[in-house]
Every structure is written in structure tokens, then in C-alpha cells.
Amino acid sequence: MAARSSRVLVTGATGFLGSHVSRRLEGEGCDTLCISRRPPQRPDGAAHVLWVQCDLLDRAQIDAVIGRIQPARVFHLAGSSRDRGLAGAASAFDANVVATANLLLAVARHCPDARVVTAGTLECSNPWTDVPQFHTAYGAAKVAAEMIARHLREHHALDVVSARIGMTYGPADPNDTRLVPYVIRSLLQRTPPRLSHCNRREDWIYIDDVVDALLRIGGAPAPLPPTLDVGHGRAVTARDVVETICDCLGTDVAPVYGVLPDRPGDAFAADIADTTSLLDWRPQVELRDGIARTVRWHLQQAAALSKAAAN
């Protein structure tokens, strides 16, 4: 096993954010352990990557993994945003509260000097600077996870930072139900996307900018504040995002608005003053450029599938 200083743990490594982070770490030659509840979706022959199938809801299982690996950095990117109805709320609480608690307790027990970066959200207000506000079970779960992290940081010296991340989009998002991939794929199939009124405002940020911020948080010298925002600092409606996609594709297929329920409340815009001053980070990709890059990726994937089918 490589020196502990190069060992990095990534949870949720088959998800959108986790897969991008793990690939970047691969490129940097880190000795990376990727944890996922499901088997990896791509074969990994990289010498620096080890895949482990592990359920974060099993406290004994994750404790054993952390005790064996002893990572120097941890990127906790596993979670769930399904929060429709009580069943969805239960899933959100398990995936974002119980799983986070199990992981952080294991790290605090075995390697409390490790830098832990957790994926928070701008779905909720910052509970340390504002009255906690959230409109969804997912937002409530993320607030609870931040509280757990703060307790372990203040009372058990765990070096944990919660990155409060905006609405992330970009290439290779495996969740077809998210707005950006759903709209692009529907339009490419010339099927009108069926949407809510899309008036909800969120801080949209391109995946590469998020990964840059997370890696800087993970590698920055201590101490860092308990939370850092990762976003553009401005909120944009989902309808603006959809219309930008339509414009980039040059399609004449019209989305159908108002046929699905609206999500309650607006998300919060990031305050990136600390993130910029402490990490010398700011987002580099504006919304239109990020959507254009994402559309190009989907077009390339469609072309590749078409070519494979022809052969």
C-alpha cells in the first residue's frame, strides 16, 4: 500500500460528482479508494485505483474499511436527492444523514487528522450564519448532516469541511431524470420535454468548477472554516436553463411547461467570498458555455451510438 499521505477515499464514486472527482484524482496519480454501494459502471485498470463495494448504512462495514485503509483525504460525495413523499424522505434521511454519520464516526475513530470534504447543498440556508431554511426533505437532511459534521469537528477534532454546492450540471451525468440531461435527450429524440413551470431559481454551476473547488478544499492546509460555498453567487430559473439548451441545440421542438408539480421554494445563491479568498478559486465556466459543452457531449454520445448500431 502506498504512503498514507497519498491515500484518498471517495464515496459515491459511481455517481455524477463522485465519478468526476475520482477521474481527476486518477489523473493526479493519487492512491484512490472508490467506495460505492453498486459495482463500478466502468472497468478500472488504473494502477492507483481500488474499487470497494460498501454500504454506508452498515456502520460496522464502513468502520472496517476506514480502519484498514486509513485515508489522508476523504471526499464524501454519496447521497440521495429523492424526497417526494414519505418514502423519498426516508431515503433522503438514510442516504444523507445516517450514511454521513457512519462515515464521519469511522474517520473520527481511526484517522481524525484526515481532511474530510462533504458534499452539502445550497438547497438550504447556511445554518451557521442564518436561520435554517429548507423546502425539501433533501435540504433538511443536508442541514442535519452539517450539524453532525460540526459536532465532530468541534468536540472530536475531526478536520471536516462541508462544501455547500449549487445545482451541478455537465457531461456524463448518469441520472437521466435531472433537468439538463433529461431535456437534452428528449430534444435529441424530438420528444417535447414535460416539465414544471420551471420558475424555481437555483445557483447553477458546471461540473469541472465543482471538482476544482472540492480538490482545493481537500488539499488546502488547515484550518478551513466548517462550510464553504461552491457556486456562481447568482440564482437562475430552470426555465432559463431549458431555453439555453433549446438555443444551443437549435431545435424547433418546444418544451411543455406546467404539466409536472413545481418544486417548492428557491434555492440559495452561493456566497463565495471565503472560497475565493482562502482557496483562490472562482467558477470559470459561465452557464451558456457550460450548457454548450454539455450539449456537445450528448451529441458525441448519440453519434457514437449511431455508428455502433450501423456496424
Helix and strand topology:
Blueprint: E1 7-11, H1 16-27, E2 31-36, E3 49-53, H2 59-69, E4 73-76, H3 85-110, E5 115-121, H4 137-156, E6 159-165, E7 167-169, H5 179-188, E8 201-202, E9 204-206, H6 207-219, E10 227-230, E11 236-237, H7 238-249, H8 273-279, H9 287-310
Parallel strand pairs: 1-2, 1-4, 2-3, 4-5, 5-6, 6-10, 7-9
Antiparallel strand pairs: 8-11
Helix pairs in contact: 1-6, 2-3, 3-4, 5-7, 5-9, 7-9
Keywords:
single chain; 311 residues; alpha/beta; seven-stranded parallel sheet; two-stranded parallel sheet; 9 helices; 15% strand
| Relative helix content | 40-55%
In angstroms, what separates the terminal alpha carbons? 43 Å
DSSP summary: helix tally: 9
Spatial extent as radius of gyration: 19 Å
Percentage of residues in strands: 15-25%
Q: What ranges have pLDDT less than 50 throughout 5 or more consecutive residues?
A: none
Order of helices and strands: EHEEHEHEHEEHEEHEEHHH
Class computed from helices, strands and strand pairing: alpha/beta
Shape: globular
Report mean pLDDT, rounded to a whole number. 91
